[in-house]
Write a structure and sequence with these properties.
Blueprint lengths: L1 E19 L5 E21 L4 E5 L11 H12 L5 E7 L10 H16 L6 H9 L5 H6 L2 E6 L3 E4 L7 E6 L6 H6 L11 H9 L3 H6 L2 E2 L2 H7 L2 H11 L4 E4 L6 E5 L2 H12 L4 E6 L3
Parallel strand pairs: 1-8, 3-4
Antiparallel strand pairs: 1-2, 2-4, 2-5, 5-6, 7-10, 7-11, 9-10
Helix pairs in contact: 1-2, 2-3
The structure holds cytidine-5'-monophosphate.
Length: 283
């Protein structure tokens, strides 16, 4: 028997850090939404009692460093499962990109194993397990659009966002989330308007949504990778309604209400970067 789960990427419409906590994590406030760029994760039972990761990606680690591996190990240990599992990850989401690809694979692994091993866990229970794998995993367990707070584990679902087109540009550099948070300084932080974003989604106000995007980590990553700023400027020049870095970067996303505009942004950026995607927000 095998189970396949879709593992969509996420973008941060907002990302705010309120303060650094005593446990070293940052207290966050973010609006996240899933986009239609997804990995596919298939879990299937194998006879030998071990966890085997297979993937079409040449660069993904296949051992304990892999989030899906960590998710399977956690499930096996928590529920004392003594059969083996093979996890096939069909990778489409860029790695170390700020799109939660690894976290989404972990979430899909947890959901898949919940079915494969007939554990009958609710999504809320799966999300609590996910928190142990990584801060973005609880959101990825549910997907869609949510206000995410705490370390990343408190998820308040929001309604659908006004549907639009999303152009994703992944510069060649990889970024470590830990490093970006470590150098974040709270002096002169410009906090995004999270309440405005939540309101915009509630009112289905696309223009207000594009005006409320913001990410406190953006300037930190831009300082190290100035190309991000140049890509943002190009996106806006080509007609994007908004352009922002997602998560700790380096991926930048552009929002466009019209497909023709999104195509223009896509084509314009394709000349500068290899990894450019034109996707929809997920319903
Ligand atoms: O939870 P996760 O392992 O994905 O986080 C990676 C790193 O990002 C953490 O080690 C921490 O440095 C930083 N982080 C943080 N505050 C959060 C989430 C992540 O400082 N809420």
């Amino acid at each position: 028997m095998e189970v396949t789960e879709k593992a969509p990427a996420k973008i941060n419409l907002t990302l705010d850090a309120l303060y650094k906590r005593e446990d070293g994590y940052h207290e966050l406030e973010m609006v996240m939404t899933s986009v239609d760029l997804a990995d596919r994760v298939t879990v299937r039972s194998i006879e030998e009692n071990k966890i085997v990761i297979r993937t079409n990606s040449g660069v993904l680690p296949l051992d304990r460093r892999n989030h899906a591996y960590q998710a399977a190990r956690l499930m096996k240990k928590t529920f004392e499962i003594d059969t083996g599992v093979e996890i096939m990850i069909e990778k489409n989401i860029p790695i170390a990109a700020g799109l939660a690809g690894g976290s989404s694979d972990a979430a899909a692994t947890l959901r898949g194993l919940n079915k494969l091993w007939k554990l009958n866990l609710s999504l809320d229970e799966v999300a609590v397990l996910g928190e142990q794998v990584g801060s973005d995993v609880p959101f990825c367990v549910y997907g869609r659009t949510a206000l995410v707070t705490g370390r990343g584990e408190k998820i308040q679902p929001l309604g659908e966002i006004p549907q639009c087109w999303v152009v994703l540009v992944k510069p060649r550099v990889g970024v470590s989330t830990g490093t970006v948070f470590n150098v974040l300084s709270f002096d002169d932080l410009v906090h995004p308007d999270t309440a405005g974003m939540v309101q915009a989604i509630k009112e289905q106000d696309y223009v207000k949504m594009t005006q409320s995007v913001g990410n406190v980590l953006e300037h930190v990553t831009i300082e190290r990778h100035p190309d991000i700023e140049r890509i943002k400027t190009k996106m806006l020049t080509f007609g994007a309604d908004a352009a922002l870095m997602s998560g700790s970067g380096p991926t930048i996303f552009a929002l466009c209400s019209k497909y023709s505009r999104a195509q223009r942004v896509y084509n314009g950026l394709k000349g500068f970067c290899k990894e450019v995607y034109l996707v929809r927000t997920l319903k």
